[in-house]
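Morning. Coffee machine broken again, so started the prediction first thing and wrote up yesterday's gels while waiting. Chain of 293 residues, entered below exactly as on the submission form.
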Amino acid sequence: MNGWLLVDKPGGVSSHDVVQSARRWLCQRRVGHTGTLDPLATGLLVLCLGAATRLSEYLLGQSKKYRALVRLGQTTDSYDADGEVTTTQAVSVNRAELTVALHGFRGVIEQIPPAFSAIKSAGQRAYKLAREGKPARLPARIVRIEQLSLIDFEAPDVTLELACSAGTYVRSLAHDLGQVLGCGAHLAALRRTAVGPFALEHAHTPAELEAAFRAGRGERHVLSPGAALSDWPEIRLRGEDVRSLQHGNAVTVPGSIAPRLGLAYDSRGELIAVVEGQPATGQWQPRKVLTLA
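Came back before lunch.
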């Protein structure tokens, strides 16, 4: 089975737990995901099945959307509600001050990942070092906050909606917001609502998906591999061109060619390869073959 499965992850379980469970009720080992959600977080987790696992790198880099609940007045060592409280302060922030503070987080910003993260430091996961009482000071990274909206504010809780680039830590955003406001803050709840072209409204809980697959109705929930890259150019091949591409050879297809990645399909509509346009030669060069001849 090849394609994408949209899961509404519940809180309290890891993304790895969801993948392991899906492997059992799908009766398929080749299952992965396209971006981790912390155990605290809920919402859209995109699973990749079969050949789609080889496309996951392209979805990993796409933007994501969230609804976040930030609690002012408390900081934690993990920057979220699963961590130990490190400071507590009174909250005397008004809506105008909050609005001004949020403005500074829009656009391209520098962000330091939390010490409790999966990033490696000196060859070890940062969260392992943090648990040993040796938290690593991770280098700042450049991220992009494409949209950041204040949905509700009832002190000490702030509800935000945001769209951000891959690699953004909403936990760090919550923590940094608290520092700017001078009262501290942490991420109390997080729900992912979109990953690239996929939206939470089309996702189902693991229990719902398991029931559907055990009843023989699960495949209707599997989206085609190309659904994640619907804005890429597509080329349709027949006969010898299909076999040539599968053997690593460039193919010529009528029409204009852009110097970008595209998707190659056979005459049955099966995705066979990721290709790259070569305007100088008028050909499409295979970059990742998904089905063999």
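The chain has three domains: 3-62+197-225, 64-191, 232-289. Going to sketch it on the whiteboard this afternoon.
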